[in-house]
Amino acid sequence: MISALRALGPSVASTPLPEAVRAGVGAVAGLIIAGLFVLSPAVDSQLGLYLIAPFGASSVLLFAVPNSPLAQPWAAIVGNTVAALIGVAVCLHVADPALRIAVAVGLAITATILCRALHPPAGAVAMTAAMSPDAIADLGYRFAVTPVAAGTVLLVVVAAVYARLTGRRYPMRQVDDRNAHRTADPDPAARIGLSEDQLTDLLERYRQNFNLGAGDLARLVGAAELQAAAQRVGPVTAGTIMSRDLVTVGPDAPAERVAALFRRHRFTSIPVAGPDGRYLGMIFQIHMIATDVRPAGPAAALMRADMPTARADTPLGDLLTLMAEGDVDAVPVLSGPSLVGVVTRTDLISAFARHDPRGPEG
Prior knowledge:
Layout (H helix, E strand, L loop, with lengths): L1 H6 L9 H22 L15 H11 L8 H21 L3 H18 L6 H10 L2 H7 L2 H24 L30 H10 L8 H19 L5 H4 L13 H11 L3 E5 L5 E6 H6 L8 H4 L13 H11 L3 E6 L2 E7 H11 L7
Antiparallel strand pairs: 1-2, 3-4
Helix pairs in contact: 2-3, 2-8, 3-6, 3-8, 4-5, 4-6, 4-8, 5-6, 9-10, 10-15
């Protein structure tokens, strides 16, 4: 009985409050922009530009779960448009209301799956058309263009802009996209030795292809492999392997001094700290080299302040993930706001070499 009751509970992991607020604010922005600039809360029989309830359902996917295959631009725009065409056709040819609604939704589901454009709100789009014979009599097949296609395109554009502004990715990055280094290799966390076809076959075998994309599956498997690798070396933490005798610069240090330190110590990164030892950011040599002009200005203008940080008790597995996903080769270790150490990729490699239980022959 207890197991049965537990099965009725939430199946989704808890979400941090900032992420929930981010999704809600995005939906508000998307629908306000749609309502103010293109659409209207009232039906306009001349232009057909008005808000429909399925746009609210599309907003849930576009702003709350933008990585879902069901939320991608093709699924949203093509799915809603195809469903609208079917809904209009059924509404014009089937008289019985109950039969009209059921047939419209059923055909919409089948058609969007065949078009590889399954988008749950599309069922509501078809149902809206089937339930609105008067509006469909005025608009006809224009309903599929305005408001459905026009409104969906607008929401997709707003979702893409909003995702970029809030540090998310939309549309979803596919397996064959170039990585941060602009090469064809997958990101480190997704290098698992399986091709896109093999990943897609796994998703289809377990009937998960509507829930995950091949790229998401690669990143999940890669993250699991990193975690498993960390567990093999035991309870190693950042405090165990970090460099403590640090060379730092203040925020006002000129670029020439930073460059001189890179040449002298052959570092790949240098932390920036205040006079009281408070961590401010990190300067990476690769970023200075990559600039089109000679680096100038103080260290505060050269540093990255938005990179991941760790504590002395951060496990090795978390450090691996931070470096793989954060596109950095060093992670600062903090005690409160103060910098106490740095863990580099070299430190991680040395830790694995020392703690691998299989030994040098493994």
